Amino acid sequence: MSVDGQTSTPPSVLVVDDEPDIRMLVRVFLEKDGFEIVAEAEDGPQALERFHALAPPQTPTVVLLDNRMPGLTGLEVAEQILAEQPDQLIVLFSAHLDSAVQEKALALGIAACASKMETHRIPEIIRNAMR
Questions:
Q1: b/e for 19-56, b at 16 or more Cβ within 10 A?
Q2: pLDDT per residue over 80-97, tens digit each?
Q3: Strand, coil or helix: what is 92?
Q4: Which of 27, 22, 26, 17 is nearest to 47 (CA)?
Q5: CA 98 to CA 77: how far, in whole Å?
Q6: Predicted TM-score of the model (pTM)
Q7: How is the chain split into domains, by residue range?
Q8: Phi, psi (5° rounding) for residue 81?
Q9: Which CATH superfamily includes the segment(s) 2-130?
């Protein structure tokens, strides 16, 4: 866990999804692959609240956002986060991922989009987005 005498820290993730089962499944896949879950949120407003509570130096490496959820969509949350912190890595994660959503996500600066059908690939998708 040390590189050149420095301790490496695992990539940290804020997981946002309104479905508890999905959050649990994502947590299992990410933790198994060496990620640290620093917080979870179940809707858009709570996602922003948790993100702000993790302000530097605990800002998450990546925010994994469901798109369809109560309060604010993932796209709306991403837009607010990226307006404040343009370099924040965000991955949009949705069961309803059509080309219009993907185009808007890329236009906002979201690093990657993933279908919930690819839940098992989330660690790989995040690592690719981190490069």
A1: eeebbebbeebbeeeebebbbbbbbbebbbebbeebee
A2: 999 999 999 999 999 989
A3: strand
A4: 17
A5: 18
A6: 0.91
A7: 2-130
A8: -65, -45
A9: Response regulator (3.40.50.2300)
